[in-house]
Amino acid sequence: MIRRLVLDILKPHEPGLVEFVEQLSRLEGVTGATGKLVEIEENVRTIRVSIEGEDLDVERIDAEIADMSGSIHSIDEVSCGDRVVEDRWITDR
Fold it and tell me: Which of 34, 36, 39, 61 is the most buried (most CB within 10 A)?
């Protein structure tokens, strides 16, 4: 079961970041979502979205992003299992 996804998303300027992330947070199984603007280009924006939940449906999330004219550029992090394990390799170095 997928508990966390961190996605690099390419989207048009509209809908705005707040509306985009709010819409993702309303999906069934999603308990929270956080979005961050990474880059602004002439016609698109790159955002990073972290989504957490009990059993995330990647296909449904991808479809919702596509419905808002966005696309997943990459899946940068995924957490599965009974709980989310924080990445300690970087902080423990």
Answer: 61
